[in-house]
Specification:
By secondary structure, the chain is α/β, with parallel strands linked by helices. The chain has two domains: 247 residues, Rossmann fold (3-Layer(aba) Sandwich), CATH 3.40.50.2000; 193 residues, 3-Layer(aba) Sandwich (Rossmann fold). 45% of the residues lie in helices and 13% in strands. The strands form two sheets. It has a seven-stranded parallel beta sheet, sandwiched between helices. It has a six-stranded parallel beta sheet with strand order 10-9-8-11-12-13, sandwiched between helices. Helix 12 links the parallel strand 9 and strand 10. Helix 1 runs antiparallel to helix 12. The longest helix has 25 residues.
């Protein structure tokens, strides 16, 4: 590449980043339902392009992750969700569906669309139904005849069908829902008022929701942290092979650089553009590190702006953007994990990285403090790019996205990258090993099973009656007993 072509590429990247920043600023002023329902579809059709992806190191990376479900239980539970293949909710639903039967809870799933995860669960013996409207959801519930329904970010029509069924409900809160309108909060309050209990995946999520709910409903929320199965320790040979596969996927060489991975959607929530800008500002000072981001492009403007920021840097070859890729192979190839989100409930990808033995750099979001505390000697918590984690709003996220190159935690993120790079390079002689401590799976599944059983017992009569109520003490007891 000639010097003139290099300069031209950087200038073009900076101009594109500015223009796309203006687009993000303009669309950020629109209501979330317009932004996500219409604008993202239009920009996706306009800006979509192929992205490279990392193929699995093993032929079947999920083999052994879960055994076929053969046991039938005395309690029938439906797990109701939206799309299963995007984000961490699908991982949690799959984990519950495949592990609850061992505790006597027969699980079935109702979701919006079919996909890879739905097919995988069916292959394991889990019944999965797709329902795209209230009528089909009611038919599925009538045929499955659950004793309890657990709601995992289900669409409005599925919430309504669950309420109409009069089956005991247990809503699960997976995120700090900064986009909820007043009408949406009223709808959630109605669902919770028809529920005997509810689950928040982190203390931050519980606190956030409690601040938007009537005092009478707050005590129904119990905290059950997300967990993730171990992906298994990788030996030196596997790590070398995974690293080679990743180098071919990104079209570059890592040499002795410390490789950070970020498994996240290209979405406003994940702050990908700000992460790329802050990382490039750090490595510009000579820090031997590279960043690989892999995920589903749910917001193509975010992806294209991140790519433009990358192209506008002299160190563009140190940041690599991939499509959704094989998580076990990415984590085997990596030295550390980075997630600089604006808001999270409990990041499943970060939990997987922790279980694989990688040091974490996490912004202050739901679950981040708990995860970093598990590995305080190597992992680092940085402030949220918009300030205090509990006060994140849609407007503050919009302002921080506009200032992607100058976010308030950029310098702190740079310091954290340097700290982790120094630790990784000092410990390179010792291979990365999976955590010896419990991965939390048993505790998570047991707590969910107790909540579900308590909810089912709260129903005073037959299937047509409204469920009873658990007191706050009973909810906490169901989790901890």
């Amino acid at each position: 590449m000639t010097a003139w072509h290099s300069v031209s590429t950087r200038v073009s990247g900076r101009v594109s980043a500015f223009v796309l920043g203006v687009v993000i600023g303009a669309t950020g002023m629109l209501p979330p339902r317009i932004r996500y329902g219409y604008v993202h579809r239009f920009t996706g059709a306009l800006l979509r392009k192929p992205l490279p992806a990392l193929r699995p190191l093993k032929a079947d990376p999920r083999s052994g992750w879960a055994a076929p479900v053969t046991r039938t239980g005395d309690l029938r539970c439906v797990l109701a969700a939206s799309e299963l293949d995007i984000g961490g909710i699908g991982s949690v639903v799959e984990l519950l569906a495949t592990r609850l039967p061992a505790l006597g809870v027969t699980s079935a799933v109702i979701c919006l669309d079919d996909g890879a995860r739905a097919q995988r669960m069916r292959a394991l013996g889990i019944e999965v139904r797709c329902a795209r409207d209230k009528a089909s959801a009611l038919r599925a519930l009538a045929e499955l005849r659950p004793d309890v329904i657990q709601l995992h970010g289900a669409p409005a029509y599925l919430d309504a069908a669950a309420q109409q069924s009069r089956v005991p409900l247990v809503p699960v809160m997976h995120n700090t829902e900064i986009h909820y309108s007043r009408a949406r909060w009223r709808r959630f309050s109605r669902v919770l008022s028809d529920s005997s209990s509810a689950v928040a995946v982190s203390e931050l999520v519980r606190t956030f929701h409690a601040g938007h709910l009537p005092a009478l409903l707050r005590s129904r929320i119990a905290v059950i942290p997300n967990a993730s199965p171990r992906l298994g320790a990788s030996d030196a040979h596997q790590r070398r092979d995974a690293r080679g596969l990743l180098e071919r996927a990104v079209g570059g060489r890592f040499s002795d650089d410390v490789v950070f991975v970020c498994l996240a959607r290209y979405d406003a929530q994940k702050n990908i553009a700000g992460t790329v800008a802050s990382f490039l500002a750090c490595v510009a000072s000579g820090v031997p590190a590279q960043l690989v981001i892999a995920g589903e492009p749910s917001d193509w403007v975010e992806l294209r702006r991140s790519e433009a920021i990358r192209r506008g840097s002299r160190d563009a070859d140190r940041v690599h953007l991939l499509a959704t890729s094989d998580a076990p192979t990415l984590l085997a190839a990596a030295d550390a994990f980075l997630l600089n989100s604006f808001f999270e409930g409990w990041p499943v990808a970060a939990t997987e990285a922790w279980a694989a033995g990688l040091p974490l750099i996490l912004s202050d979001v739901g679950g981040a403090r708990e995860l970093v505390a598990r590995d305080s000697g190597c992992s680092v918590l940085i402030q949220n790019a918009v300030g205090t984690a509990g006060t994140v709003t849609d407007a503050r996220v919009a302002r921080s996205r506009w200032a992607a190159r100058h976010q308030r935690n950029s310098a702190e993120l740079g310091d954290a990258i340097r700290t982790v790079v120094d630790k990784v390079r000092a410990e390179r002689a010792a291979p990365v090993a999976a955590r010896e401590a419990s991965d939390g799976i048993a505790e998570m599944i047991n707590a969910h099973a107790r909540i579900l059983r308590a909810a089912a017992r709260s129903r005073p009569g037959g299937r047509s009656t409204r469920p009873g109520r658990l007191t706050g003490e009973e909810v906490r007891g169901a989790v901890t007993t």
